[in-house]
Amino acid sequence: MIGNEKETNMVKLVIFDFDGVIITGSNEGYFRCYHKTLETVGVSLDPSEERKRILQIWGKGYKYQLQLLLKEHPEILPKAVKIYEKYYWSPLFSINIKLIKGAKGVLTRLSKLYTLVIGAGMRRKRLEILTKQFKLEKYFKIIISNSDIENPDNKKPSPYMLNMIVDRYRVHKNEAIYVTDAKSDVEMALKAGITPVIVLTGHLSKDEAKKLKIKYIIPDIAHLPKLLASI
């Protein structure tokens, strides 16, 4: 019963990453934009090295990721930043984005039981476009984006964002969870003292997720209500 869940569940605040958690296709969009940018400026990396560099500081921000991708060619970084911007706001990024199956039903249910917040690396303007496109605005109390944080040292994967959110809603850290699909976000949550929940709809395979040795791994957010009821 929903009423019993609310009475017995210790979790009060559920913080969601967005890419690979609520929507799918955006992670691939980032990779396409980075790859096309490198291609346009005439830089070629081994595919495994390109992916490794992107994931190494995932969520930190595109300028930092381009800096790492182009560490052997720093002189072309300003040009690459402008080119990436063009691709990011084109269909190259957004063409395959869709809502995770069952996500809206889950959010409808959970929003009656918990405070729901988005804490994501995606830029605010893009988050606002997508939440409006999929009619998700009503489910979330607030959206926090990396682009809202001025100090680069406080951007994801720093725990600053998660600390700011729990302070804002005055909950203990053991009363919050962070739902994510990425290794760097799991590390961020652990640094913040907040329980991470991995969904397997983004970056991590089941084997990769298990190697992180965290307690909660679920196939997708459709399984989140049952998990929350058991915590």
Features:
two-stranded antiparallel ribbon; Rossmann fold; 6-stranded parallel beta sheet; disordered N terminus; 13% strand; 2 domains; 231 residues; alpha/beta
Could you give a short description of this structure?
Helices cover 46% and strands 13% of the residues. By secondary structure, it is α/β, with parallel strands linked by helices.
Detailed description of the structure:
With 231 residues, the chain is of the alpha/beta class. The chain contains 12 helices and 8 strands. It has a 6-stranded parallel beta sheet with strand order 5-4-1-6-7-8. Strands 2-3 form a two-stranded antiparallel ribbon. Helix 2 crosses helix 5 (77-88) and helix 4 (62-69) packs across helix 5. The two termini are 15 Å apart. The protein folds into 2 domains: 2-25 and 97-230, HAD superfamily/HAD-like (Rossmann fold); 27-94.
What is CATH's topology name of the largest domain? Rossmann fold
What would you call the structural class? Answer: alpha/beta
Low-confidence stretches: 1-9
Helix content: 40-55%
CATH superfamily of the largest domain: HAD superfamily/HAD-like
Strand content: 5-15%
> Averaging pLDDT over every residue, what do you get?
93
Distance between the termini: 15 Å
H and E string: HEEHHHHHEHEHEHEHEHEH
- The CATH architecture name of the largest domain reads 3-Layer(aba) Sandwich
Question: Secondary structure elements and their pairing?
Answer:
Elements: H1 2-8, E1 13-16, E2 23-24, H2 26-40, H3 47-56, H4 62-69, H5 77-88, H6 91-94, E3 98-99, H7 103-110, E4 115-120, H8 124-133, E5 142-145, H9 160-168, E6 176-180, H10 183-192, E7 195-199, H11 206-211, E8 216-218, H12 224-230
Parallel strand pairs: 1-4, 1-6, 4-5, 6-7, 7-8
Antiparallel strand pairs: 2-3
Helix pairs in contact: 2-5, 4-5
